[in-house]
Amino acid sequence: MVSIHVNENIQLRSYTAKDAQPLFDAVSYSRQHLHPWLDWVDKTTKPEHSLQFIQQSIHQLNTQEGLTLGIFYDEKIIGGIGMHQWEHNLKRAQVGYWITKEYEGKGIMSVCLEKFADFLFYKTGLNKLEIHFVPANKRSAKLAERLGFKVEGVIRQGFIRNGMPEDLVITGLLKSEWQARS
Fold this sequence. Notes:
The chain is of the alpha+beta class. It has seven helices and eight strands, in the order ββααααβββαβαββα.
C-alpha cells in the first residue's frame, strides 16, 4: 500500500476494496464533467466496475506495471492520480489524473501532482514523466505547463475520444528539470 501525505486535508493513497462504492459514487457524481476527457467513465456503470479497477490497480502495483492512487480530501475520494505505461528500462512513465467537478479549480491537482512527481522521481527512480492530453483539454495543458512539462510533440489523430480520432499532445518532464525548479 502506498500513501503520500499532501497536506493536512489531502492524502494520496492506494485504493482498497472498501473504496469501491465511494469511488463509483465520485465518478458517477462527475460523469458529465469527466466524460469528454476519459473514455473509461462510460464503462464504469456499477460499483463492481470500480472494484475490478481497484483489483487491477493492486495487481499492477504488485507487478510494478503501474501505480494508481486515490485523492482523498478529509478521507473522501475526490479524484485519482496514477502512473502507467511504466517503462523500467527507460525509467519513464505516463501520469494521468482526474478530479470531481466540485474540487476543480482549487489548486488541489497541482499540489497532488507535485507530491506525486516527487514520489515518482525520488522513490521509484524514474527519470522522465509524461502527460498526454487532447488539445481541447486546456486545464491539463495549463497544469502540465505550470509544473514544468514541455511539449515534445503532437501525434496527429493519435487518440480516439468519443469514437472520433483526435490529436494527442505529448509533454515530458525530466528528473533534472524537476530538481532544477526546486
